[in-house]
Each structure stands twice: as structure tokens, then as C-alpha cells.
Amino acid sequence: MHIWVDADACPNVIKEILFRAAGRRRILLTLVANSPLRTPPSAWIRSVRVGAGFDVADDHIAARVSTGDLVITADIPLAAAVIDKQAYALNPRGEFYDAENIRERLNMRDFMEEMRGIGEVSGGPPPLNQADRRAFANELDRFLTRQLAPR
Distance (Å, rounded) from C-alpha 134 to C-alpha 111? Predict the structure, then answer.
């Protein structure tokens, strides 16, 4: 299993949780971003800097993710591509995307984009809070425990 992170928009507190989990569980963690990233020295953690441009990091991840991998992203289209490849997608608030909820999320994303386009809605999601961080850490731990359990 490999954990991929859509790192440009991933909050630093979530990256820190991922760094600790990768080292503790000995899982390869790759952060993909358009800008330089600082990562702790570890055999389990690496970063990839991709070129600037819309969805370049997302496309890099989508092209390389394999069945059973985990992708950390708040990007709904990337999550849909990941699910299509039979991998897992978890957002920084601790919510898994799956085959049942991804289409609804895509529709809502498109609707909100349209509303922003005509000026009816502004702003984005609220800032990450302590409950979100805890939810993410708990979901990640449960997922890794299930996936890495002897079968």
C-alpha cells in the first residue's frame, strides 16, 4: 500500500499526522505539489514537485495510484478518479469518499461552482478545527489497522 497526498491544499497539521503514521506503520507516503515541500527525513516519506498548472498534481497522482492505495485529497474529481481505480480517498476532515457518495459530491461541487460563478455563493469551507483533525487521525488509524491486519 502507498499513501498519496494532494499536498498543495493539504493542511500542515494533517501532513504531520501522516508523517507520524507513515513512520510508525512503515508505509510509503508521497506528497505531490506544485510548490516545494518540507518533509522530515525518513525512508518512508518523499515528495514530488510537479509543474505549475491546473490539476497537474491531481493528474500525477491519478496516473500513478494503484488498487488499494490511499489518497488524501479534498479534490472531488481526483477522489472520483481514485475510486474508479479501486483505491481509497480520504479528505482532510476525516471523510472517506466511496462509490456511493462520490457522484453526489461531484454534483454538489458542480452546483456550488455554478452558484459561485453567478455570485450567489462566496468563500469556501470553514477552517479545519480540532474535531476535524481528530476525525482525520481516527479514520486514518482505523483504515490502516484494517488494511495492514494479517489476513
Answer: 29
And the C-alpha cell for 94?
476525516
Q: Which DSSP state fits 32?
A: E
Looking up cell 476535524 gives 132
Any residues with CB less than 8 A from the CB of 104 and at least 6 apart, and which? none
d(CA 19, CA 39): 8
Cα(136)–Cα(132) distance, integer angstroms: 6
Round to whole Å and give the CA distance between 103 and 78.
12
Question: 70: closest CA among 45, 42, 89?
Answer: 89
Alpha-carbon distances of 38 from 15, 124, 126, 149, rounded to whole Å? 10, 26, 25, 31
Which residue(s) pair with 28 in the sheet? 2
Going by the DSSP 8-state scheme, the letter that residue 120 receives in this structure is S
The model carries a pTM of 0.86
Any idea of the CA torsion for 52, 76, 61, 20, to the nearest 10 degrees?
100
- The tens digit of pLDDT for each residue in 2-50 reads 999 999 889 999 999 999 999 999 999 999 999 999 999 999 999 999 9
What is the Cα 5 distance to its own chain's centre? 5
